[in-house]
Specification:
- It is a single chain.
- The protein is of the alpha/beta class and about 375 residues long.
- The protein is built from 9 helices and 14 strands.
- The strands form 3 sheets. It has a 5-stranded antiparallel beta sheet with strand order 7-6-5-9-8, sandwiched between helices. Strands 12-11-10-13-14 form a 5-stranded parallel beta sheet, sandwiched between helices. Strands 2-1-4-3 form a 4-stranded antiparallel beta sheet.
- Strand 13, helix 7 and strand 14 form a beta-alpha-beta unit.
- Helix 7 packs across helix 8.
- The radius of gyration is 22 Å and the shape is elongated.
Length: about 375
C-alpha cells in the first residue's frame, strides 16, 4: 500500500473502534490494487478507510465486512471474479481479473496495527504473517528485523517457518508454509524525503512529500529559515552546515534527497555530503537548477555523481513552485519504486510491478 493510505488504515485499526478489516491477499489478471491493499470498516460506520478495488467491489466487500463483524467474528476468504457473472462483480468491471480477499474482525488487529505504525515511525521493518485457513485462521504473528516475534499462529514450528518466509518476502503475498496457507506482509518504513534548502519553493515540495505519507526532513544552514509554521508537514527541521547534512539527518532507508539551496557552493557541499558519507547513496538524489549549472556541479563531484538527477524532476513543462514540486515528487516516487517515469500508454506488460514472495500463489483459488 502507498504510505499515506497505509497510515490512515493503521490509525483506524489501532483506534480500536471494532468492525472489520479486509485485505487483498491474491490477484490474478488485471486488478486495480495488488496484494496487501487493505480497508478498515469501523463499527460506528462513516464509510471505509482505504480502498480495495477503486469502487469495483468495495460495496460488496463492505457488506461482507459487516457480516463478519456481526456474526461471531469468524474470518472468511472471499473470491471475486471480475470477469464472470452479471452482477456487481462482473459486467462493466474496469479490470477483468480475480481477487481473493480476507475479511476479519478488526478487534484482534488493533494491537498489531499500533505496533506496525510505531515500527514504521521509528524506521524499523516488521513482517506480519496471518493465517488464512486451518488452525491458524485469523491468527497473527509479527516478526521484527532481528527475528523477534510477537503474537502466535498456534504452532511454534509454523511460526519459525513463517519468520523465515517473512525474511525472504520482497512483497505481500499468500504463501504455503509447512502445509499451512499464510498471508505474509512486509511493512517497511515510509520513504524519507530530505529537502536541502529552506527557500520559499521548498514549501510545496515538503507539502507534496507529506501528502504522499513520506517522512519529510528539511535541512538548512540558517535556523531562522526553519520555521515550523512554514513546513507543517515536516517531521523534522535540521539546522546543519551543508557539508554535514548527511551526518545530521542520519540513516534511513529508503531516502530521496533534493538539493535546492539556490547557491552553487552550498549545493555542491550538500551533494558531496551524501555522496561521500561512506553510506550507500540515496535511492534518489537530485539538484534543482538549469542544465549548465548541473553540469558544473557534476564536474566538481567527479565519478561519484553518476546517479545524480540534474536537473531535478520529470519533464512536465513545470513553471510554478507547485508544478516543480509535482515534477520532482513524481520523479522521486518513480526512483523509489524502480519505475521508469515514462507514460504508461507507451509501455508493455502489466501496469503493476509484481514481486511475489517465494512460493506465492499465482492465482486465487476460485
Amino acid at each position: 500500500m502507498a504510505a499515506a493510505e497505509l497510515d490512515r488504515v493503521l490509525a483506524a485499526l489501532a483506534g480500536g473502534q471494532g468492525g472489520a478489516a479486509a485485505t487483498v491477499v491474491a490477484v490474478a489478471g488485471s486488478a486495480y490494487r495488488r496484494p496487501g491493499a487493505r480497508a478498515a470498516y469501523p463499527a460506528g460506520g462513516g464509510g471505509p478507510v482505504g480502498t480495495l478495488a477503486g469502487g469495483c467491489v468495495d460495496a460488496d466487500v463492505a457488506a461482507c465486512a459487516a457480516e463478519v463483524a456481526s456474526a461471531g467474528g469468524r474470518p472468511r476468504l472471499v473470491q471475486l471474479d471480475l470477469a464472470a457473472g452479471d452482477g456487481d462483480w462482473g459486467w462493466g468491471a474496469g479490470c477483468p481479473g480475480a481477487l481473493e480477499v480476507f475479511v476479519e474482525p478488526a478487534g484482534p488487529l488493533a494491537a498489531v496495527a499500533a505496533e506496525v505504525a510505531a515500527a514504521r515511525a521509528g524506521g524499523r521493518r516488521l513482517v506480519l504473517a496471518t493465517g488464512l485457513a486451518g488452525p491458524a485462521l485469523g491468527r497473527h504473528l509479527l516478526v521484527g528485523p532481528g527475528g523477534e516475534r510477537q503474537g502466535s499462529l498456534g504452532d511454534a514450528g509454523l511460526e519459525a517457518q513463517a519468520a523465515a518466509a517473512g525474511a525472504r518476502a520482497p512483497a505481500a503475498a499468500a504463501v504455503t508454509v509447512g502445509g499451512h496457507r499464510l498471508f505474509v506482509e512486509p511493512f517497511d518504513p515510509p520513504p524519507r524525503l530530505v529537502v536541502c534548502g529552506a527557500g520559499p519553493d521548498a514549501e510545496p515540495l515538503v507539502g507534496a512529500g507529506a501528502a504522499l505519507g513520506w517522512r519529510v526532513e528539511v535541512v538548512d544552514h540558517g535556523p531562522a529559515r526553519l520555521d515550523p509554521a512554514r513546513f507543517p508537514g515536516a517531521a523534522r527541521l535540521v539546522a546543519a552546515r551543508p557539508e554535514a547534512a548527511a551526518a545530521a539527518v542520519g540513516r534511513w532507508r529508503p531516502t530521496a534527497v533534493v538539493v535546492m539551496s539556490h547557491h552553487l557552493e552550498r549545493d555542491g557541499a550538500y551533494l558531496a555530503s551524501f555522496l561521500a558519507s561512506g553510506e550507500p547513496p540515496p535511492a534518489y538524489l537530485a539538484v534543482l537548477g538549469p542544465r549548465p549549472r548541473a553540469a558544473r556541479l557534476a564536474a566538481r563531484l567527479g565519478p561519484v555523481a553518476g546517479g545524480l538527477r540534474a536537473p531535478a524532476g520529470l519533464d512536465l513543462g513545470a513553471e510554478t513552485p507547485e508544478e516543480v514540486a509535482l515534477s520532482i515528487a513524481a520523479e522521486a516516487l518513480a526512483a523509489l519504486r524502480g519505475a521508469g517515469g515514462g507514460p504508461l500508454c507507451g509501455g508493455h506488460g502489466p501496469v503493476h510491478r509484481r514481486t511475489p514472495a517465494a512460493g506465492a500463489a499465482q492465482r486465487p483459488a476460485m
